[in-house]
Amino acid sequence: MRILSGIQPSGVPHLGNYLGAVQQWVHHQTPDSLYCVVDLHAITKEIAPDSLRRQTIECAASLFACGLDQESSTLFVQSHVEFHPRLSWLLECVASVGELRRMTQFKEKGEKQELHRVGLFTYPVLMAADILLYGTTHVPVGDDQRQHLELAREIANRFNNTYGQTFVVPEPIYPSVGARVMDLQEPTRKMSKSVSSPLGKIEILDSPEEISRKIKKAVTDTDSVVDYDWEKKPGLSNLLDLLAAATGTEPQKLAENYTRYGDLKADTAEAVVAMLRPIQDRYAVLIDDPSQILSLLNEGAQRVRPVAQATYARASEAMGLLAQ
Ligand code: AMP
Ligand code: TRP
What is the CATH T-level fold of the domain 208-284, as seen in this structure? Predict the structure, then answer.
C-alpha cells in the first residue's frame, strides 16, 4: 500500500485540514506513506514570495507538530522534486480541456481571480502527477477533493490504455467523521483557508480564547432543538461533528445529551482546545529552529526522488520521448 497526499502551504492549517486530512495522514503513517507540501499548487493564486517561503516552513512545522515524523513516513516539498511539473506536462497532453472545465474548484476559485492563471486551470493535472509519480495506491483526502481524485484515475486509465500499463490507478480514502468541516459563520460552505472569514475558521494555532469566541459566535438557527440534521440544522450539525471528532464519539449520540445550544458550544470549545493543545505545544518548539525543518524536508525529497525519476522515465519513454 503506497499512500500519498498533499497540502497547500497557503496559511496555517485549519480544523477542516486537520480533521479532513492531516489526522488521517498521521494515522496512516508507514515507510510507504509520502506527504507533500504542495508549493507549486500554492502559486496558482497570488502569494507574496516572502509569505510563500515562511508559510512553507510553517506548514511543514505544523504537520510535524500534528504527529508526522520522518522516521515513520516521509514529508517533502513538491518543488524540490522536479519530476512533478515534468510529469504534469506529459499528463496535460492526455487530459482534455473539457474535463478540466468541469472542475468545480476551478469554476469557484477562477471567477475570483483578477488574472485568470493557466496554472489554476491545469492544477488538477499537477495533482494527478503528484499521485501517479509514486505508484500511489491510496490517497487520503477530504471530501472536497473527490472530483480531482476521479480525474487522476481517469488520466491514469487513459494513459495506460493509450501507451501501455504505466501507472497504478489510485483509490481515494475519505474520512468518516469530519470529512467536511463547514465554515462556522456560513455552515453551508466548507471551512476554507482563502474564503472563510476569521470568525468562520479555526486555525490549529488559535489560542483557547479565540477558539471559544469563534465557537460561541458560530451561526446556528433560531429554534433551540438540538438535532443532528444536516438539511435543517447545518450550523448545529457542524458543531456536533466537531465535538464528535474531538472526543471520538458519534454525533447522533451526542445530540441526545444536549437541550441547550450554549452548553453544546461550551463543550465543543473545550474539546477542541484540548485536542489542539499538544499540537500547539510541539509547534512552539519546532518553529524555533527553521533550519532544522528545512533539513528534514531536504532529507524527505532525497528519499523520494529516485522513485519519481523512475516513474517519469517509464512514462516519457512509453510516450515515445527518447531516453537519455
Ligand atoms: P487545502 O487547504 O486546500 O490545501 O487542503 C488540504 C487538505 O485538507 C485536503 O485533503 C482537503 O481535502 C482537506 N480540507 C480542506 N478544507 C477542508 C474542510 N473544510 N473539510 C474537510 N477537509 C478539508
Ligand atoms: N489539491 C489538494 C487540495 O487543495 C492538495 C493536493 C495537491 C493533493 N496534490 C495532491 C492532495 C495529491 C492529495 C494528493 O487539498
Answer: Tyrosyl-Transfer RNA Synthetase (1.10.240)
Contact yes or no for 258/264 (Cβ under 8 A): yes
Amino acid of residue 246: A
Reduce the DSSP state of residue 165 to 3 states and report it: coil
Alpha-carbon distance 190 to 187, whole Å? 7
Q: Is 109 among the residues known to form the active site? A: yes
Whether the CB of 21 sits within 6 Å of ligand 1: yes
Q: For residues 13 and 25, what is the distance between their CA atoms, to the nearest angstrom? A: 14
Q: What's the gap in Å between 141 CA and the centre of ligand 1? A: 7
Topology given in CATH for the domain delimited by 3-173+289-319? Rossmann fold (3.40.50)
What is the structure's pLDDT at 105?
Answer: 85
Protein residue closest via CA to atom 10 of ligand 1: 141
Closest ligand 2 atom to 148 CA: 1
State pLDDT tens for residues 219-242: 998 888 899 999 999 999 999 999
Annotated catalytic residue within 45, 107, 190, 253? 190
107 annotated active-site? no
How much is the average pLDDT of 202-226?
94
Cα–ligand 2 centroid distance for 6 (angstroms): 4
Domain ranges of the chain: 3-173+289-319, 208-284
45, 11 Cβ separation under 8 angstroms: no
CA atoms within 13 A on the CB side of 220: 21
pLDDT value at position 324?
A: 83
Q: Is the CB of 186 under 6 A from ligand 1?
A: no
**From the CA of 13, how far away is ligand 1's center (Å)?**
9
Grid cell, residue 61, equals 512545522
According to DSSP, residue 18 is labeled I
Report CA 299 to chain centroid distance, whole Å: 22
Q: What average pLDDT does range 88-111 have in this prediction?
A: 92
